[in-house]
Amino acid sequence: MIIINLFKKITRRTIFLLVAICLVFGTIFSDVYWVKKINLEILKRTITPASKQAYDFIESIPSGSVVLVSGDYGPSTRVEADPILENFLKQCFRKDIKVIAISLVPDGAQIVANKTIQIAGMYNKVENQDYVIGGYVIGGAVAIEKMGVDLKDAIPIISNNNAPFLKDIKTANDLSLVFCIAAGDSLVHYIRILKSRYGVNVSGGCTAVMAAEMYPYILSGQLIGLFGGLKGAADYEILESNPEPDQVSEAVKYMLTQSLIHGLLIIFIIIANIIYVYDRVIFKKRI
Amino acid sequence: MKRELPLIITALTGIIIIINYFLPELTGKITQIVRNWVIVISSFATILGILNLVIISLRKTLEPITHWDDRIANIILIASLILTIIIGMIYNVVPKKDYVFKVLLDNTGLIPLITFQVAMVDTNIFNTVIFYSIYNPLSAAMFSLLAFFIASASYRAFRARNLEATLLLLAASIVILGRVPIGDYIFGFIGLKVSVISEYITAVINAAAQRAILIAVGIGTIIISLKLLFGIEKAHLGKSE
Fold first, then answer.
1. Contact state of B39 with A117 under an 8 Å Cβ cutoff
2. What HEC string does chain B produce?
3. For a pLDDT cut of 90, what percent of chain A falls above it?
4. What pLDDT does residue B238 have?
């Protein structure tokens, strides 16, 4: 009875405060060695099949091939999307795959350009030789449709680029893969237009809330695997780098914060249902 | 003619795009022109949106009945817009790579050491100040509020009121726990792999429901498109005078 009354005193402020404590605690302790070790051990055992499928496909692309990466996300979803982009670029540059980096959203252009330059620098790759930056591509679904007919017409910045690997690229069909990291509906557009109509290989990553919507496309083979949310990003980091606990970067580290928040959500759900069932039983007894 | 002309344009454009899907050789060039028009129009729509925003904000700022805090918010909005446009036009958005001298704190040893490093970073003022120092944290902060609201909403909404609600509650709880290492860590002691059950729910049960929704949405879209093409649906033309 005392516990139930205590539960009933939980207000919105209490919930907000507990969430904030979990966030701060998770952020501080995410860098502790044994926390990273436990996280890493569990994550290595639970790699999502969709992540493995996407990774294996990219791994099978021969060196020298050209891929297009479309980072269609803004700063609000960087925590989830940035590690996916980073690991994709690492995998491409490690395998000497040529990259065309674009964004279909205005605030994604800077992020994609900076990340590409940063990762390329780690692998000693040269702009306009190993990769090109296409910037912001206006038009959304219409621009994707144009890529199927004339890639350089769809991405104006690369139309006058003299990069040797762009010589043989006329349409999206000449690309080995289109990899879209989406926080909106662009991944669906890529699948519906480039894959369904032009038969281009499409893979990608998305925020966790969008991942559930993508499964029909994965099962039908229209989408080659998927890195969904922070879990997908952590999967990608493990598959690409197989890091030791002291080498892990953001995606694996932030899983502690996400674990704590998810654990807290479950505790709240249990408490809410205990109160609900208790009230219903009492109410029925009084009747 | 005021209503008929847009209807004819809609029908013609739609029919051209549909024909292009089946016979690309026949309507390839005209479809290319239509696609370019769409991109040009969407660029103009952005300008129209900015103008609209400025006009509304100015009107709100100048209206005597507007509260002072609303007035300040509108002034900040207009000033930020103008400042961003000016700095963007002067400095461009292309990353400007430059070598900078960095002072770093090395925490790896027993005693923290100060180290120096020459690193190549982006020194474009638009990117570093406007985008990464102002827009980036503000946008992330807005989105991160979701964590607080979702926690509060799940506490109030997830109740086992009936069978359907209980099933939803169970499925959501399993997926919530299955997507993070803590789920397998807690239930690992009794040999239960929550991540596997979570993956089954997402890849099988969820996919079946999603597919049904997608097919229904697809059929609905075809019907709406046909109604638009044949001029039955006129909502996009606005109210008739």
1. no
2. CCCHHHHHHHHHHHHHHHHHHHCHHHHHHHHHHHHHHHHHHHHHHHHHHHHHHHHHHHHHHHCCCCCHHHHHHHHHHHHHHHHHHHHHHHHCCCCCEEEEEEEEEECCCCCCEEEEEEEEEECCHHHHHHHHHHHHHHHHHHHHHHHHHHHHHHHHHCCCCCHHHHHHHHHHHHHHHHCCHHHHHHHHHHCCCHHHHHHHHHHHHHHHHHHHHHHHHHHHHHHHHHHHHCCCCCHHHCCCC
3. 62
4. 74
User: What pLDDT, on a 0 to 100 scale, did the predictor assign at position A206?
Assistant: 94
Q: Say whether residue A281 is in contact with chain B using an 8 A CB cutoff.
A: no
B-chain CB neighbours of A13 within 8 Å are none
The full set of domain ranges for chain A reads 2-30+259-286, 47-253
CATH architecture of residue range(s) A47-253 = 3-Layer(aba) Sandwich (3.40)
Residue window 47-106, chain A: list those with CB within 8 Å of chain B.
48-50, 74-79
Supply the pTM of this predicted model. Answer: 0.88
Q: Give the rounded percent of residues in chain B with a pLDDT score beyond 90.
A: 29
Q: Does A222 touch chain B (CB under 8 A)?
A: no
CB contact under 8 A, B150 and A43: no
Q: Chain B contact for A35, CB < 8 A?
A: no
- ipTM (interface pTM): 0.85
Q: Do B179 and A138 touch (CB under 8 A)?
A: no
